[in-house]
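User: For my dataset I need records formatted as: sequence, then structure tokens, nothing else. Please produce one.
Assistant:
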Amino acid sequence: MAFKMKGFNKPKNTPNNGDGEMTKKEQRKHRKNVLKYNKNVAKPLTDSQKNKIKNQLSKMDSKDPEAKLLRKMLNLKKNR
């Protein structure tokens, strides 16, 4: 007999439930959330943090989604 208990939900049918690599869709959503957090909640970056990010950007492909996210973080009004 199968029955459903109150308060217990079946895990979502996602290809990834938090273990291992994120899917491309999960990565895009995560980057969007990171940028939103940096825009609204995070403190402005220090000069050393900005230099680290610029150093990382110089080593990355300009079309890489992570590079785009880092450029957007540097270009936020509070980080200029």
